[in-house]
Amino acid sequence: MSLWIDQLKAGDREATQQLWGRYFQQMMELAQQKLASRPRLGANPEDVALSAFDSFFRGAEAGRFPQLNDRDDLWHLLVTITARKAQRLFDQLPEEDLRAIAVLKMEGHMIDEMSAKLGCSLATIERKLKVIRAVWEKDLAGT
Fold first, then answer.
1. Contact 49, 82 (CB under 8 A)
2. What is the 3 state secondary structure string of the chain?
3. For the CA atoms of 133, 20, 67, 139, what is the dihedral angle to 10 degrees?
4. How far apart are CA 103 and CA 40, in angstroms?
5. Residues 72-126: tens digit of each pLDDT
């Protein structure tokens, strides 16, 4: 693991793939836990983990993590980045109805079920899901 960290710091893309394979699933699970603990949110855990990994890789290549020496340091850093990404998404949806739709989507409800629960049309649900995706994609792409 320390070898992969050293290789990553040196810009070795093979190390990136190794770390990705080792940690991505755990980061997605962490993102899911962070997002599920906040009922206002319905972000995709995979998007959060992808964005967190991207930030980590760019930061490591830029030398921003001088204290990164072993797998414990690495996991702590990945947890911190992932949690911050998930937390920031909490503030991205300005309207309560968008948050309600996002939560229902995260819980696995279909569009027709959301429409019935919230008392609005299928077209309204679809339109608002597009708004939610656009807000989060913009946020996650910019970080």
1. yes
2. CHHHHHHHHCCCHHHHHHHHHHHHHHHHHHHHHHHHCCCCCCCCHHHHHHHHHHHHHHHHHCCCCCCCCCHHHHHHHHHHHHHHHHHHHCCCCCCHHHHHHHHHHHCCCCHHHHHHHHCCCHHHHHHHHHHHHHHHHHHHHCC
3. -10
4. 6
5. 999 999 999 888 877 877 668 888 888 788 778 767 789 999 999 999 999 999 9
